[in-house]
């Protein structure tokens, strides 16, 4: 279900932002995809394939979801490897990482795909602490089943 949501959201992103084969988001040919918590970068594979077929340089960051600082460091390393202007795309918790990395000079735009978008100094818990009456609290829980990917074995499209 989650992979379907990510893929559907990302396809909408690709259609809206990238448009035709000659469109370049924010003048960038580089796109870095950042997964959320309790999932891994494999959820971006369909989006990766579509963007690569349009000629974009695409990187999927396989951060460990160990700590925000460590996850940010993974994305910063992936960003440092890009050869020019870059669009950062994050899903769910990946949006928190984007908010930390988004001020890098290489970043030309940030895309939050059903993601948290905190201000500087805000956490996810801050964002959900005072929701209006009747608004359900997002489930911030680990998944019920284990990932099919084994640690240390990312796909070739990941960093």
TrEMBL record:
Region: Disordered, residue numbers: 138-159
Assigned keywords, A-Z: Hydrolase, Signal
Signal sequence segment: 1-23
GO molecular-function term, one example from the UniProt record: hydrolase activity
Tagged with keyword Iron: no
Start and end residues of each AB hydrolase-1 domain: 31-137
Keyword presence, Signal: yes
Pfam families linked to this entry: Abhydrolase_6 (PF12697)
InterPro entries, per the entry: AB_hydrolase_1 (IPR000073), AB_hydrolase_fold (IPR029058), Sec-Metab_Biosynth_Hydrolase (IPR052897)
Protein name: Alpha/beta hydrolase family protein
């Amino acid at each position: 279900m989650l992979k379907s949501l990510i893929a559907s959201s990302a396809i909408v992103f690709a259609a809206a932002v990238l448009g035709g084969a000659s469109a370049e988001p924010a003048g960038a040919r580089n796109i870095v995809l950042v997964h959320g918590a309790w999932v891994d970068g494999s959820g971006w594979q369909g989006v990766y394939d579509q963007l690569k077929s349009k000629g974009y340089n695409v990187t999927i960051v396989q951060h460990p979801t160990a700590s925000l600082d460590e996850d940010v460091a993974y994305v910063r390393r992936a960003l440092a490897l890009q050869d020019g202007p870059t669009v950062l795309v994050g899903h769910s918790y990946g949006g928190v990482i984007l908010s930390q990395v988004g001020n890098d000079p290489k970043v030309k735009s940030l895309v939050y795909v059903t993601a948290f978008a905190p201000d500087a100094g805000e956490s996810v818990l801050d964002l959900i602490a005072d929701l209006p009456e009747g608004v359900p609290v997002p489930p911030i829980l680990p998944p019920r089943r284990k990932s099919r990917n084994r640690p240390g074995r990312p796909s070739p499209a990941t960093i």
